[in-house]
Design goal:
Elements (H helix, E strand, L loop, with lengths): L8 H11 L4 E3 L15 E5 L2 E5 L3 E3 L1 E4 L7 E2 L17 E2 L2 E2 L7 H20 L5 E2 L9 E3 L2 E5 L3 E3 L3 E4 L6 E5 L3 E3 L5 E4 L7 E5 L3 E3 L4 E8 L3 E3 L4 E8 L2 E5 L2 E4 L22 E4 L16 E4 L14 H14 L15 H12 L21 H14 L10 H9 L1
Parallel strand pairs: 1-10, 2-5, 2-21, 3-6, 3-22, 4-7, 4-23, 5-8, 9-11, 10-13, 11-14, 12-15, 13-16, 14-17, 15-18, 17-19, 18-20, 19-21, 20-22, 21-23
Antiparallel strand pairs: 24-25
Length: 405
């Protein structure tokens, strides 16, 4: 089995040094999860329309109701005779609409009701923190809890959700939710996208190439701009609009699209430091505006890296790509997800078989999703290496070739 070397301690030290000037911490208790009911069976569920342009890749089932299948556009759906679902080359899953064979219509009606019930339940939870940062939450780190705004919320720079695997976050937003282009929702400490709920009364807009983790329960529309990625669900009571996006349904075992670095550092390297300036006196939030207490981690501890250090991140990622600790030990194909998919994309990009020239899959923007671009790049490598058939399937023959070479 071919392995990459571990990320160097030097990289860990650099990340630690810059983490001391990082985001604000927010503390709250973890609430109970939001029961999505049968709506949780869908990665996208809409009442009025689902449209896409470009090379969108969706992993999970898609549904619409009460609007008909004709309101699903850009997917080139094929409906087998007397089938309960249709298919699309853009969807690794099934597409459901009213009028398909039973019990599809009844199931969709129930799923939409469950979606609306989940929204009502989530928006009615008692908040732990209200009106944080007047709705401009870029750069903050959130502990588990319920956060409420009577306004819209903007995410102009990366935010981090830090907690354990079973912790829950609920964000109640009375107006629009906007995440800027290239901004990321980063998960740390084992936080799971499946346990994050963005409850939005207005429109949710995910900016170009932004990375979004969590379930969106939207009373109106969800819009993903060009190249945006979603690890979670888009459950909209009106429409969902896509443009060359990568979307994967979140589960309790799925990996986040963006996670914090987990460098290997010896326990003797651990040290701590505190950087502090002013503290907010806002009674509801008890948030330190510019103070962070951080510790260099022992082995296996996660560090978060924020958006205001893009140049540093780029340098670190170059080193990580050269020293990534990953193993290729399973078959991979379109629809596969995981860190080994990202490692494969890195390998292809750094060995002359470019997954994408820019955006998703390009060097430095590798993802954990095996889509058509990954398949095409892998097929080029296989053809060059004389591996037949050269179909872009990462199976035993290709794995054996990498082991030897």
């Amino acid at each position: 089995m071919k392995r990459f070397n571990k990320v160097s301690t030097v990289v860990s030290a650099v990340v630690f040094a810059f983490s001391l000037v990082g985001p604000t911490a927010v503390f709250a208790a973890s609430p109970a999860t939001v029961d999505l009911g049968s709506a949780g069976n869908f990665v996208i569920l809409s009442k009025t329309g689902i449209s896409t342009t470009g090379s969108t890749s969706i992993v999970g089932d898609v549904g619409i109701s009460p609007a008909a299948a004709s309101y699903i556009t850009g997917f080139a759906l094929t409906l087998p005779a007397a089938s309960a679902f249709s298919l699309s080359t853009l969807v690794t899953g099934k597409v459901y609409a009213p009028g398909y064979a039973d019990p599809t219509s009844a199931n969709l009606t129930m799923a939409v009701l469950d979606m609306q019930t989940a929204y009502t339940n989530a928006v009615g939870r008692a908040p732990d923190v209200t009106e944080l940062s007047a709705g401009n939450i870029g750069g903050l780190t959130f502990a588990p809890g319920v956060y409420k705004w009577g306004t819209g919320v903007t995410i102009p720079t990366d935010i981090t959700l830090s907690g354990a695997a079973n912790d829950v976050w609920i964000f109640q937003i009375a107006q629009n939710l906007d995440i800027s282009s290239a901004a990321k929702i980063i998960l740390a400490g084992g936080a799971q996208a499946n346990n994050i709920f963005w409850v939005v009364a207005g429109q949710t807009t995910i900016g170009t190439t932004a990375v979004f983790n969590g379930n969106i329960l939207d009373q109106t529309a969800v819009v993903l701009n060009t190249g945006a990625q979603l690890n979670g669900r888009a459950l909209a009571q009106t429409a969902v609009t896509l443009d060359s996006n990568a979307i994967i349904v979140a589960t309790s075992s799925s990996s986040a699209l963006v996670q914090t670095l987990t460098p290997a550092v010896s326990a003797t390297a651990a040290a701590s430091a505190t950087v502090a300036t002013t503290t907010s006196s806002t009674a509801n939030s008890a948030v330190s505006n510019s103070s962070v207490t951080a510790a260099a981690p022992a082995s296996g501890t996660s560090l978060s890296v924020t958006a205001d250090r893009e140049e540093l991140i780029a340098k670190i990622m170059e080193l990580i790509r050269a020293n990534m600790n990953a193993s290729f030990n399973r078959n991979l194909t379109v629809g596969s997800t995981g860190d080994d998919v990202k490692a494969l994309q890195v390998w292809l990009n750094t060995n002359g078989y470019t997954v994408a020239l820019n955006g998703l899959g390009s060097l430095g923007n590798e993802t954990t999703i095996f889509g058509q671009l990954t398949r095409a790049a892998l097929a080029k490598f296989q053809a060059k290496a004389g591996i037949n058939p050269s179909l872009g399937y990462f199976g035993p023959i290709t794995r054996s070739y990498l082991l030897v070479h």
